[in-house]
Amino acid sequence: MSDEVGSPTDETTGAGVSLVERYEAFTDGIGEEVVVIVVATLAVAVFPWLFAEAPVVSDVLDGYRGLATLMLIWAIFAIGFDLLLGYTGLLSFGHAAFWGGAAYAAGIFSAEVTGEPLLVVLAGTTFAVLFAWVLGFLSLRRGGIYFSILTLAFAQMLFYMASSPLAFLTNGENGFTSVEITPLLGVLDLGTEAPFHMLLGEWLYVFVAVFTVGAIWFAYRILNSPYGTVFRAIRENEQRAEFVGLNVWRYKLMSFVLSGAFAGVAGSLFTIHGNYVPLESLYWTESGEIVIMTVLGGVGSLFGPIFGAGVYLYVENIVSGMEALTIPFTEIVLISNFGVYWHILLGLVFVVVVVGFPRGIWGMIEDLTGFVVLAVTDREAAKARVRTKLSGARDRTVETFSRGGKR
Amino acid sequence: MTLAADIAGILLNGLQTGAIYILVAIGLSIILGTLRFVNFAHGALYLIGAYAGLLITLEIDLSNGLLREWGFQTIGLGWGFLPALILVPLFVFVVGLGMERFVARPFYDRPDTDQILVTFGLAIIVQELFRVLFGGQSIDFARPAWASGPVMLPVVGNFPVWRLYVIGITAVLVALVWLLVEYTDFGLIVRAGTQDPEMVELLGIKLTRPYIVMFGIGAALAGVAGVVGAPLENVNPNIGTGVLVPAFLVVVIGGVGSIRGAVVGGILIGMVFSILVGAPLPQVTVAGTEIVWSSWAQVGIYALAAVVLLTRPEGLFGEEVTG
């Protein structure tokens, strides 16, 4: 951003103004919400080009357009999951039920009723919301680990139901193949090229991208409202939230249902994208994947999970195909047959993140860039920031001990 | 086949299905109950047990393994299984000690969710390691020759011997663990530590060692379960996670930390499963389609867990609602 944009609320003048302050002044002027939406829209718009066709970048990345669409779909799922894990502090291992359940509902709806994409998404999401309500109602009877186990168990129940007793509806192990998607609003075939197709590719991508930006905006709205503040209060200390007079149970259930709705939108889009619903979309490893994506990217931030979804899919689809890991720009082979190890590698990174970097890769990047920017523009402020951060960490440690630990 | 034979057969099958879950669930349950640690990698220990058992059995087996090289040719076939049954628990016990020291201990004071996440990551690493090392295909883990055939039982008729061994081994192990926890000083310290760790430490007893041993025992049980259970199915890298979810259900149904609960929970799940699969249930027709009961077997155990949970959230033998 240039100097002209510098805002009238900026009271300090001259050389002492740091980039951070300028950014804050800038966002004060037009509202952070608009900034987030505009940035998200731009990012989503250039993403497939950057990922798949830009001269240098995409050569290194080796990306392709279909994967870009899939990344956005999982990003929506991850945003919703983070709403639950990152903000309310509930770790669900059953989100495959909403993702896969919505995918099946959308698929069956498209075959039995109508293939209109908007209605298909609506149908899938409705199913996910209703099912999340039931599952949340059952699972939230217990907290902590029991919640995780119960969500896992009930989601598995749906998997087994789809796999055999309900096979007449779901086509069992073969997956649901008779998905019928009709053109959007009866005119726009999602498979045809969109305008600016250098950038955007097919209409399907635009369709998914609109939902992605919408999901980001919606999540931003929730998280910056009093409602979202309650979620965070519950995460920090459930008992205190209860004593303040909040109906914790209701907020937890709503957080669960909301995150189920995101998963539902994503699952429906997945059906439209693939024209097929595999039975595995209900299996619990799918829940595990969304957990890994979210934690890897960074819980408790809006963009962390999106980033995590991208990284996971990238590793799963592209790194897994790599023959050998070489030192960049040389021919020296570090590990041959590298692709086979992608799951182990991801697992290791995941464990490292859980142990050492609770805010994930995104948090690491945030800290790093923030630190570099500050160090360049304002050394005193940088030192002060580091100091407060350290004392913050100390306070947290003290708090942990004063709570008497877990045992 | 008479009705009595049917019923007895179904009960025995249920007992055997439950037995494996009990072995896995007891370890899970005592670690959860005493150490307050959620081990999503418990299934990985089962996996390690299964593969280690398979390797030892193949290596020592008479037909072409070490025993033959050493000149033993007349003591009967398939004795490689016994060393596996003894060595694997010891090995997995050591693995468990390492896990307590380097994975669990740093996480005792961190939130439940972090414990789940780190053990989940660990489970993935172990599973994929086995996939890379041994391939993703299923390997047949043959039952030892002395226990591979059927046996004639009084009421039931023909019944696979190995399934009887599974029930027997489980019963002995469960009894041993129960005696250990209820009637030894070690068990007393661990139980006291569950109730009030600070008080125990004030009495001059360091809890570190009992805890690490308890974790090892839980791990060893999962390892034995792997050796005993693997000959019932094929060995592949997914069996660890396959057994983990039902084991968690057993813990939830029975109540955390309760050995009695794990036994009852395991038997209940085994019975529901075996009844839905094999019992001559009445034919029910809903909306023109006849219900095939056996296809509901997997769903049934989850439904059972749901019912128990709605009526007794703390489990059948759980004492209090924690967390």
From TrEMBL, chain A:
The keyword Transmembrane helix applies. InterPro entries: ABC_transp_permease (IPR001851), LivM-like (IPR043428). Its main location: membrane. GO terms for cellular component: plasma membrane. The chain crosses the membrane at residues 34-52, 64-85, 117-138, 145-162, 203-223, 253-270, 290-315, 327-354. Pfam families: BPD_transp_2 (PF02653). This is Branched-chain amino acid ABC transporter permease. It comes from Salinirubrum litoreum. The lineage of its organism: Archaea, Methanobacteriati, Methanobacteriota, Stenosarchaea group, Halobacteria.
UniProtKB/TrEMBL annotation, chain B:
InterPro entries: ABC_transp_permease (IPR001851), BCAA_transport_permease (IPR052157). CDD domains: TM_PBP1_LivH_like. GO terms for biological process: amino acid transport. It comes from the Archaea. It is a multi-pass membrane protein. It holds the Pfam family BPD_transp_2. The keyword Hydrolase does not apply. It is found in: Cell membrane. Keywords: Amino-acid transport, Cell membrane, Membrane, Transmembrane, Transmembrane helix, Transport. Belongs to the binding-protein-dependent transport system permease family. LivHM subfamily. This is Branched-chain amino acid ABC transporter permease. It comes from Salinirubrum litoreum.
